[in-house]
Design goal:
The complex is a heterodimer of chains A (403) and B (168).
Chain A: E1 10-12, H1 14-29, H2 35-43, E2 45-47, H3 51-74, H4 82-110, H5 117-140, H6 148-165, H7 168-190, H8 193-215, H9 223-242, H10 255-274, H11 277-298, H12 311-337, H13 341-363, H14 369-402
Parallel strand pairs in A: 1-2
Chain B: H1 3-25, H2 27-35, E1 37-42, E2 44-45, E3 56-60, H3 62-65, E4 82-90, E5 93-96, E6 109-113, E7 125-127, H4 130-141, E8 145-151, E9 157-164
Antiparallel strand pairs in B: 1-8, 2-3, 3-7, 4-5, 4-6, 8-9
The chains are: A mainly alpha (403), B alpha+beta (168).
Chain lengths: 403, 168
């Protein structure tokens, strides 16, 4: 929620300010507010048109500097000794961390809003440059390249920092890197497509459970990021599980997957105990996705060539499409329920990509050329129309219920 | 006045924990560098085609991997995980003895992993500027390079350098 003070009006979108202006006029006309109170309310907010552009520039800039720093480590500056390189990179990381806290301190002192684009960029730089410290330490000691535990340490460090400062931007860094480490480690150790799918879907349960815990009252600002990561992982996991080439062949159950399952079960149980009915409902989707995804991978339709597509393969494709439609539909609905438009966009985008891939896979062996594109196009237009109609009906139902 | 110091303490504590994590990530090679014994190992090339190859040379150790499949019988064949390779002197260099899943009673030995497609002992990458990496890679491919490594009492290894024989 946006906060403001008498000296620092809160930045809001022009559309929000226009809505507020209309409401204030109505309240004045109804005699609920006098002119002084209406002016005092207006003075608490200011329209900021280029806020999103500033966020984009700062976010992109922070990412470029962070990636550039890690690249600098990778290019192996031979003019400097390994110890000096490590010292320099560590000092840079500490400088970014200190700069972020100076900005946060000034804003807190002036009574400004706690979340700002500049502060977010500074904290993102700190989280990214911590990765450079990890890689420089490894490079200085000649630790082999492609070592997953380096990513794990980077992700864990970024998450610790994010929770210490309650910063969303380092949380995003920590979530991305931590998820990458878990999936890479499990997929590599399991030596199978089943390892990738199960790691992604177990990660989705953890992410969703933490999102529900946050929404229940513990750092609510973190709920959105965790929820979006959970949704993304479910959609990626089920997408991969639906591909007939992904099987459980040579699957070896890694220890880390057992640890992940225990963490997921504990987090989900805690979230279910603390959350409301909607929160508990939110937990069901990734839990069901784990079971559905692993069963789909286990079910080998026996496709060896596109010219030998069997009835079992069509059944596999049909069930996969039904499961994916249910998952994407749920996240589109959740986006509306939680007022999270990015979630709805993510679900719709995922559905479009999935439908395209599946449509090509199903129709390609039967038809070809222009007819194939016409049919796939018709399926896409039909899916888009159905999704949009469903979303409109849901919004109308919710608005009708609220009235 | 009391808010700023408490925030500084909290951030300082997190930075210390982050640095400890970095230390934990490189504890093995750090321990080997500080307390290990120095040895020479024969090196060989891995994969001459790597689109992501950057400022390092990927190394293989034929004299270690050669014996990695000859386990001492304490684990079923096909099982993967941590493997210990005793180091046996062979002239001025060392080579691997029969590998085992249980930690040897005495050293020197290397603690490696055969969980992936190749044996990994933590000494497979030698970082150096990209312009020099290609030359060294060619020398390794010709079989004229040896690795100088340090190994501690727990089998942790650190790569100190890759030396090319004169004329190699």
């Amino acid at each position: 929620m946006t906060t403001s003070s008498a000296t620092h009006p809160a930045p809001v979108r022009p559309s929000q300010l226009a809505w507020l202006e209309g409401e204030v006029r109505q309240w004045q006309a109804a005699g609920l507010l006098d002119t002084a109170a209406a002016d005092a309310i207006r003075a608490r907010y200011v329209a900021v048109r280029r806020f999103s552009l500033v966020r984009l520039l700062l976010g992109l800039g922070a990412c470029f500097v962070g990636v550039g720093l890690i690249w600098l480590v990778a290019t192996n500056l031979d003019q400097l000794s390994p110890a000096l390189r490590f010292t320099l990179v560590t000092l840079l990381w500490l400088a970014f961390t200190a700069a972020a806290e100076v900005i946060a301190g000034r804003r807190a002192h002036r009574g400004g809003e706690a979340r700002s684009a500049v502060l977010g960029a500074a904290r993102a730089l700190s989280a990214l440059s911590f990765g450079a410290v990890v890689f420089q330490a490894a490079q200085s000691l000649q630790v082999p390249a492609y070592e997953p535990r380096l990513l794990g340490v980077w992700g864990l460090g970024a998450l610790l920092y994010a929770y210490a400062v309650a910063g969303v931007s380092p949380l995003l860094v920590g979530l991305s890197i931590g998820t990458g480490w878990f999936v890479w480690h499990v997929a590599e150790a399991s030596n199978s497509g089943m390892g990738f799918v199960s790691a992604v879907l177990v990660g989705a349960v953890v992410a969703t459970a933490v999102a529900v815990l946050h929404a229940a009252g513990w750092l609510p600002a973190f709920a959105e990021a965790w929820r979006e990561v959970g949704a993304l992982l479910v959609l990626v996991g089920l997408f991969t599980a639906a591909l007939p080439v992904v099987t459980a062949e040579d699957f070896a159950w890694p220890v880390l997957l057992t640890i992940g399952l225990v963490v997921a079960a504990t987090a989900a149980a805690s979230a279910a105990a603390l959350a409301d009915r909607r929160g508990r409902l939110e937990l069901l989707a990734p839990a069901a996705a784990v079971v559905a995804g692993m069963l789909l991978v286990q079910w080998d339709p026996g496709v060896t060539a596109t010219s030998e597509v069997t009835g079992s393969a069509y059944l596999h494709a049909g069930v996969s499409v039904a499961v994916y439609l249910a998952a994407a539909g749920w996240y589109a609905v959740l986006g509306v329920l939680r007022d999270a438009s990015r979630l709805t966009v993510l679900a719709t985008g995922a559905l479009v990509i999935f439908t395209t891939v599946q449509a090509f896979a199903v129709f390609a062996p039967i038809i070809s050329g222009a007819t194939l594109f016409l049919l796939v196009g018709a399926v896409l237009v039909g899916s888009g129309f159905a999704v949009d109609r469903g979303r409109r009906q849901l919004v109308a139902t919710i608005e009708g219920g609220a009235a | 006045m009391s808010r700023l110091p408490s925030r500084v303490v909290r951030i300082g504590a997190v930075c210390l924990v982050q640095l400890a994590l970095v230390g934990a990530a490189v504890a093995g090679p750090l321990s080997a560098r500080l307390s290990g014994q120095e040895f020479l190992l024969e090196v060989g090339p891995v994969d001459p085609i790597d689109p992501f190859r950057g400022a390092y040379v990927d190394l293989d150790y034929p004299s270690l991997a050669g014996d990695a499949s000859r386990f001492s019988g304490d684990l079923a064949p096909g099982e993967k995980g941590t493997v210990f390779i005793p180091l046996v002197r062979d002239g001025d260099r060392m080579r691997g003895g029969p590998a085992t899943r249980t930690r040897p009673g005495r050293g020197p030995y290397l603690r490696c992993s055969d969980a992936e497609w190749r044996l990994r002992c933590g000494i497979e990458s030698w970082f150096l500027p990209q312009s020099e990496a290609i030359g060294l890679e060619r020398a390794v491919a010709r079989g004229t390079a040896v690795a100088r490594v340090k190994v501690d009492s727990r089998g942790n290894a650190a790569l100190l350098g890759v030396e090319v024989s004169p004329g190699g």
